[in-house]
């Protein structure tokens, strides 16, 4: 009897330690984080279900800003580290400022050209119109055509951009830059949106305000001339804007400018923020300054922890991929988004737990032989290994406080 009980106990233990329902558990290279039964969260785990047949939004990318009016341009090394998918972060969006003085237009071009060479989209934003076109902090209605010509000249000077936003945070009065109500922004786009040299992005409110955006889009002429809705999330969490008939891009945010980009807790906050933006249906996430002490690249040209967290998304979820249906929060502290491109499946998993966490997955609508795994922790940057799967179910151990990207093969 004792022997039989021992055999049963051994069988149960073997089942518990398996990482896949069909094959041995993949290891975390040197950071072996333990087997399923060692996870303190095992009792509250649930399966993350991915349906590749249920397509959600198209992904346009992940990026950051280079604003020459306020800081020096990126160096050659910093450009490569920002945009390369092999040796850098893999950013696929560059945000730049449209200067008020046309003599400064050409200064933007070197970084724009390098970003494009890596396949990045460039979006240009105007904080102000030239002073001669302003009435205080407002755009003079009599200067609509002249302002559109100014934006078009910029677009020509830099060799073309993916989109231009004529206003930046027009609903933020303390800023000191060009203000406008949603109606005023819409009136300009309705009148001159076709004459700005590039597709229009807007209306760019500070807090991605639903009322501001809806009022802007209520102008049917402005809506028809708007390529995608853009805005920032200062003071507001990401949320679903509903069926507005346009892609939504989050085009500026940073989490904390007073601490280092290497602060791991803050980097994990950014990871969850990116997850949230994708989970509510947005197509792009753009950080503030690319190079800054609190940014993805520091002032010494090093990729920071924040940068490696961005890379977990930007390198592997490329423009044109689509987000697919996925259990977003299958277990306490675990957050998942899933994407596909053709037959490729990509998952990004944020584990906020301070302990190793085992997570089960099942998927449908795509055939997978295995996954290349990339993960970043407080002590590892894009560490990698791979594992095979059989069938449509598997499980992985997630390192404590980590971001993991799984790319199918």
UniProtKB/TrEMBL annotation:
Family annotation (InterPro entries): 6GAL/EXGAL, GH, Glyco_hydro_b
The protein, known as: Cellulose-binding family II
Q: How far does the signal peptide extend, from start to end residue?
A: 1-22
Keywords associated with the record: Signal
Q: What is the lineage of its organism?
A: Bacteria, Pseudomonadati, Bacteroidota, Sphingobacteriia, Sphingobacteriales
User: Which PANTHER family does the record associate with it?
Assistant: ENDO-BETA-1,6-GALACTANASE, ENDO-BETA-1,6-GALACTANASE-LIKE DOMAIN-CONTAINING PROTEIN
Q: Which species?
A: Pedobacter cryoconitis
Alphabetized GO MF terms: hydrolase activity, hydrolyzing O-glycosyl compounds
Highest taxon of the source? Answer: Bacteria
């Amino acid at each position: 009897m004792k022997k039989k009980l021992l055999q049963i106990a051994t069988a149960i233990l073997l089942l518990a330690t398996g990482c896949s329902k069909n094959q041995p558990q993949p290891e975390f290279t040197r950071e072996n984080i333990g087997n399923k039964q060692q996870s303190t969260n095992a009792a509250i785990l649930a399966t993350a279900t991915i349906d590749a047949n249920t397509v959600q939004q198209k992904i346009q990318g992940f990026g950051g800003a280079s604003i020459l009016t306020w800081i020096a341009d990126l160096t050659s090394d910093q450009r490569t580290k920002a945009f390369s998918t092999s040796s850098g972060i893999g950013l696929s969006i560059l945000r730049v400022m449209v200067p008020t003085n046309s003599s400064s237009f050409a200064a933007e071009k070197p970084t724009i050209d390098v970003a494009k060479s890596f396949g990045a989209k460039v979006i240009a934003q105007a904080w102000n119109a030239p002073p001669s076109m302003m009435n205080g902090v407002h755009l003079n209605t009599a200067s609509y055509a002249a302002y559109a010509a100014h934006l078009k000249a910029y677009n020509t000077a830099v060799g073309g951009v993916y989109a231009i936003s004529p206003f930046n945070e027009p609903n933020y009065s303390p800023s000191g830059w060009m203000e406008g109500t949603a109606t005023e922004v819409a009136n300009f786009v309705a009148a001159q949106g076709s004459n700005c040299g590039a597709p229009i992005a807007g209306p760019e409110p500070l807090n991605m305000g639903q009322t501001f955006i809806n009022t802007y889009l209520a102008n049917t002429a402005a809506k028809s001339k708007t390529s995608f809705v853009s805005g920032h999330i200062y003071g507001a969490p990401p949320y679903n804007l509903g069926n507005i008939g346009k892609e939504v891009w989050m085009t500026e945010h940073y989490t904390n400018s007073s601490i280092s980009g290497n602060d791991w807790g803050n980097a994990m906050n950014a990871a969850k923020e990116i997850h949230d933006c994708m989970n509510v249906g947005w197509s792009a996430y753009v950080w503030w300054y690319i190079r800054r002490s609190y940014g993805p690249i520091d002032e010494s040209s090093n990729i920071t922890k924040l940068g490696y967290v961005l890379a977990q998304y930007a390198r592997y979820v490329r423009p044109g991929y689509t987000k697919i249906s996925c259990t977003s929060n299958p277990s306490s502290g675990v957050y998942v988004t899933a994407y596909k491109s053709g037959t490729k499946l990509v998952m990004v998993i944020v584990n906020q737990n301070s302990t190793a966490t085992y997570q089960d997955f099942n998927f449908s609508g795509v055939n997978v032989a295995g996954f290349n795994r990339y993960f970043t922790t407080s002590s590892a940057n894009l560490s990698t290994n791979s594992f095979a799967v059989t069938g449509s179910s598997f499980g992985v151990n997630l390192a404590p406080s980590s971001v993991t990207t799984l790319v199918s093969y």
